[in-house]
Amino acid sequence: MKRKYNYFLLWWLHFFLFPAFGQEVQLYQQFNGRFDFTFIGNTLNTQENLGILNSPCIINTSASAELTLQPDDELEKAYLYWAGSGPGDFNVKLNDIDITPDRTFNLTQSTSGLIFFSAFKDVTEQVLLTGNGTYTLSEFDLSEIIPDYCTNATNFAGWAIVLIYKNDNLPLNQLNVYDGLDYISLGNENLNFSLNSLNVIDNIGAKIGFIAWEGDSNISVNETLRINESILSNPPLNPSNNAFNGTNSITGSNSLYNMDLDVYDIQNYIQPGDQTAEIALTSGQDFVMINTVVTKLNSQVPDATITIDNFYLECDSREIVVDYTVYNLETATNPLPANTPISIYANGVLIETTNTINSIEVNDSESNTILLFIPSEISNPFELTFSVDDLGDGTGVVNEINENNNVDVVEISFLLSPEFNSLEPIFSCNEGFGIGTFDISAIENSLLIDFSNTVSFHQTLSDAELNLNPIINLTNYQTNTGTILYIRVENEFCYSITTLELITKNCPPTVYNFISANEDGFNDFFFIDGLRNIFLNFEIEIYNRWGHLIWKGNQNTEDWRGEVTEEVKWNGNISADGTYFYLLFLNDSDYPKPLQGFLYITR
User: What's the pLDDT score for residue 81?
Assistant: First the structure.
């Protein structure tokens, strides 16, 4: 049971709370492909409203219409609109299925203060299930409020369904559905609005349809309908001076009282390249509300987009190799032409342009690779942007279905080799003939700046570059003086190579100053550790306590065992027990003065 309303109270509340205006007709939905449209619907008026003195003030609560799509027509969308006098009835039934609106529209007539409404429901699923046949809108009950509208002949109610269907035999078209609720009448005699988002490629077969309410067949005072300043007419149903007159272009009916479902050919009134159309209505008396406008244009246009598929970086290089793909999406209705421009930006700065090579068919793509150089003024990291149908300033040359999907952006960080500290040479004592033993295990503590990096030591540059044969023993690494080690410092992506020089130096020798020259195998000679094979030009002199030279030796002589080889001799050639003195001439630039000391000999 439908709820009863105090319509008089609702009317006054609406009059005082809402100003006298309608809702602008705007784009609701767009379809691109092999689409067309049609209307079905019916009036609930029993006859044209002529005022309370000339017609009965009654209205039906249901009305029916027939849907007959062809076998090859595939329904895409079905949009139900119902409208009438008053604040609205938003609980109706379509073929006994409850309907409540997805959206509603309302307006207030400025001269009378009367309010009117329209409601919208997407009924695609129901129509798909039902198919062709009879559609009845019922329980649409305005009977309580209609008497308030009969005195000025604005009592009406009606419904219509916009049907968008696909057929593979149709040309590629663009369909736009616009809706709102606006009006013309005495006191508001001009209504102008723009149909935006058009893309006229070819004007052949172009048409426009209107769902309008409350037009009268017997009122034609300065009543015109224009598109781009040209008057539309479709005689005999729709003469040029009475477009909204209770007619249905689909069925040919002229008894669709106080509503219109009219379709006009407009191919002579639009031009290829048009992106808008201007609609202008005039009326010196008749009250007409525009609810829905549908356009069909032959619009075979591409829909380009682009993706950055992969990019390849070299360490310490601003050159980047990029794989990318240009798509002509499934929503397109025409191939994307060859040589469509592509612009490439780094942090918004244009760095390169290229273009597609071939024509790209609908739902197809073209992949290519490009080498880019990123200028030094571009910071790291940076945004790399590929933009298709872009001349380098954001403007394109190709009309597309969607101009807002032409860009792909990725953030890129350059690959940088790890930084490191410079190393000074390290030293070890000469163990003989320039060979030394080095501990290089702690070198990385001085070398690294970022301790997440890894370090390896190599004997050759080639091994370091290839990361082969790393040195394993870092604590006791033995090598000749002047050896260069190659150190590989590596992060996740890159590596650096630096060098470390290993130098042996002649450290001061150690003198063991006790001799027991008895040939027992212990301390039998004057032993100086770190002398032979290190200071190759050394000379040594032994003096007795009176300062007389008794022995001289060098690299080519044996160690002193107490013998006397110089002119001072006693006890034969053997020195006596006691204390002696030595002078050790290393003949090394690091040791310009001789080392000297005493030694003791016993037998």
Answer: 98
